[in-house]
């Protein structure tokens, strides 16, 4: 099948490209500007750029990995965040509707408030976004769900991998390699997700044109502190540089 990927230069977009390269599918990588692995320009906030590439490539599915994904930046650059994470999704939905394309969209566990006892959320749990990024991602989901477009929404958690794009693994590894201290909280627990697993899920959703919301994550519940220690152990780095802190000790823009 023909698959078009948006946000190809990101952490997830890159991993999708690598898997699609070793598959029978025809695919193209796009980003809002040329460079990196993107061969075509699609700025998801710009309908003209979407239309041009869709007319040329005529995909069966679009995997949308384009987003403003930095939680703290979304808190301060709200208009930009909304434009990409909501208006951009709206543009893709309209395109998929016009051309009969299946849409695979990546969302986040941040749409939940994290207060559920036991901490494991199902697809049916009630969202309760706590920050602007989360609000924008939930609004993006709603745009898709209120349309008649064939779609898969994959909600994922703390994606990691060895990639130039910063993520928890590269962040901790680089700090420890430089002999710098790292502050990691023990009171926030996540289920870290390996980027290749998420990429595989995105492609599978596109192949099956799977309809609905799917939670996609790693299986282990870990605090950031535990994640950091595991990374240090894996790369044989100095664990004693990792400081145990509490969320209330940090001055984060987003909750
Ligand atoms: N990473 C995580 O832990 C995590 C967790 C849950 C959900 N997600 C979701 O997973 C998806 C992929 O995230 P990621 O980690 O791969 O993020 P990422 O590395 O920041 O990749 C996002 C890509 O989208 C591009 N982009 C931004 N605005 C765009 C626009 N208007 N048009 C086209 N491309 C645009 C970015 O371009 P630049 O390269 O210029 O920045 C970047 O290459 C997002 O929907 C995110 O919300 C991620």
Account of the protein in words:
This protein folds into 2 domains: 2-157 and 193-217, 3-Layer(aba) Sandwich (Rossmann fold), CATH 3.40.50.720; 160-191 and 220-250, UDP-galactose 4-epimerase, domain 1. Helix 1 (11-21) links the parallel strand 1 (2-6) and strand 2 (26-31). A 7-stranded parallel β-sheet has the order 3-2-1-4-5-6-11, with helices on both faces. 39% of the residues lie in helices and 20% in strands. It has 255 residues and is α/β, with parallel strands linked by helices. The structure holds NADP nicotinamide-adenine-dinucleotide phosphate (NAP).
Would you summarize the structure shown here?
With 255 residues, the chain is of the alpha/beta class.
Topology:
Layout: E1 2-6, H1 11-21, E2 26-31, E3 40-41, H2 47-57, E4 61-64, H3 71-76, H4 78-99, E5 102-108, H5 132-145, E6 151-156, E7 159-160, H6 168-177, E8 182-185, E9 189-190, E10 193-194, H7 195-208, E11 212-216, E12 222-223, H8 224-234, E13 242-245
Parallel strand pairs: 1-2, 1-4, 2-3, 4-5, 5-6, 6-11, 7-10, 8-13
Antiparallel strand pairs: 9-12
Helix pairs in contact: 1-7, 4-5, 6-8
In this entry the ligands are:
NADP nicotinamide-adenine-dinucleotide phosphate
Question: Which sheet architecture does the biggest sheet show?
Answer: 7 strands, parallel
Per CATH, the superfamily of the largest domain is NAD(P)-binding Rossmann-like Domain
CATH topology of the largest domain: Rossmann fold
Radius of gyration: 18 Å
- How do the strands line up in the largest sheet? 3-2-1-4-5-6-11
The total count of strands amounts to 13
Distance between the termini: 40 Å
- Secondary structural class: alpha/beta
- How many H/I helical runs? 8
Name the CATH class of the largest domain. Alpha Beta
How would the global form be characterised? Answer: globular
Number of spatially distinct domains: 2
Percentage of residues in DSSP E strands: 15-25%
Helix percentage range:
25-40%
Encode the helix/strand succession as letters. EHEEHEHHEHEEHEEEHEEHE
What is the typical, i.e. mean, pLDDT? 95
CATH architecture of the largest domain: 3-Layer(aba) Sandwich
Ranges where pLDDT stays below 50 over 5 or more residues in a row are: none
């Amino acid at each position: 099948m023909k698959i078009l990927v948006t946000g190809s230069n990101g952490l997830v977009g890159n991993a999708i490209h690598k898997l699609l390269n070793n598959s029978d599918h025809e695919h193209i990588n796009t980003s809002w500007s040329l460079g990196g692995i993107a061969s075509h320009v699609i700025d998801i906030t710009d309908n003209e750029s979407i239309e041009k590439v869709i007319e040329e490539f005529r995909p069966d599915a679009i995997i949308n990995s384009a987003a403003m994904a930095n939680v703290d930046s979304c808190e301060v650059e709200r208009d930009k965040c909304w434009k990409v994470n909501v208006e951009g999704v709206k543009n893709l939905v309209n395109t998929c509707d016009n051309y009969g394309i299946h849409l695979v969209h990546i969302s986040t566990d941040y749409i939940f408030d994290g207060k559920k006892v036991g901490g494991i959320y199902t697809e049916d749990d009630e969202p309760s976004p706590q920050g602007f990024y989360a609000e924008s991602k939930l609004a993006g989901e709603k745009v898709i769900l209120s349309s008649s477009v064939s779609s898969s929404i994959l909600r994922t958690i703390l994606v990691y991998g060895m990639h130039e794009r910063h993520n928890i693994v590269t962040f901790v590894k680089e700090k420890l390699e430089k002999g710098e201290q790292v502050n990691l909280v023990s009171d926030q627990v996540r289920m870290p997700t390996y980027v290749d697993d998420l990429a595989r899920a995105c492609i599978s959703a596109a192949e099956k044109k799977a309809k609905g919301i799917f939670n996609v994550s790693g299986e282990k519940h870990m605090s950031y502190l535990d994640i950091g220690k595991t990374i240090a152990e894996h790369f044989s780095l100095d664990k004693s540089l990792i400081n145990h802190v509490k969320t209330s000790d940090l001055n984060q823009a987003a909750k």
